[in-house]
Specification:
Length: 166
């Protein structure tokens, strides 16, 4: 055999198209005599991947959802979230700025800015943790207060109307 590229219908090469003889899918068997398996079309869905997951077969819960909050309440919550985000960003920027000023004053190179940046990150995370724990505590106390008020109202009326107590 020569190193010259073959000409004709049974040539093999990188530009051969599927279905042609020469060992390509759908074509004749290669030199070993074993036929080549068909290549799977990448745009055709695979049947083994079309199974519906078990979680999607279950009926959704019909438990009552929380009542939607008013527009004002959602705007207040959005404002709190933006405040928390800006607090995080400006804590980091503030730490970096103080470190840079220390570098400028003492001529210590980038080390003050790097340390200030690290202190800014630590401060930002501490502030986020404090704010979220405070918010969770306020929310938990509000829910407990509402539960106590409902229990007191149910116990006070005894299931009767206020006029029937007399």
């Amino acid at each position: 055999m020569s190193d010259q590229p073959r000409e004709g219908p049974d040539r093999k090469g990188p530009l051969d198209t599927p279905g042609l003889p020469g060992g390509m899918p759908g074509g004749a068997a290669p030199e070993g005599g074993q036929p080549v398996e068909e290549e799977r079309d990448p745009y055709r869905p695979r049947p083994d991947l079309l199974e519906i997951p078990e979680i999607l077969r279950e009926k959704p819960s019909t438990a009552p959802l929380e009542k939607p909050k008013s527009t004002t309440a959602s705007l207040i919550e959005m404002g709190k979230a933006w405040g928390l985000a800006f607090d995080f960003v400006f804590s980091i920027i503030g730490g970096f700025a103080l470190g840079w000023l220390f570098d400028y004053w003492r001529g210590t190179g980038p080390w003050g800015a790097i340390i200030g940046l690290g202190i800014g990150f630590v401060t930002a995370f501490i502030r986020i943790i404090r704010n979220t724990t405070k918010a969770e505590r306020r929310e938990r106390e509000g829910k407990e207060r509402e539960a106590r008020e409902r229990a007191a109202a149910a116990a006070g009326s005894g299931g009767r109307s206020p006029s029937a107590k007399r």
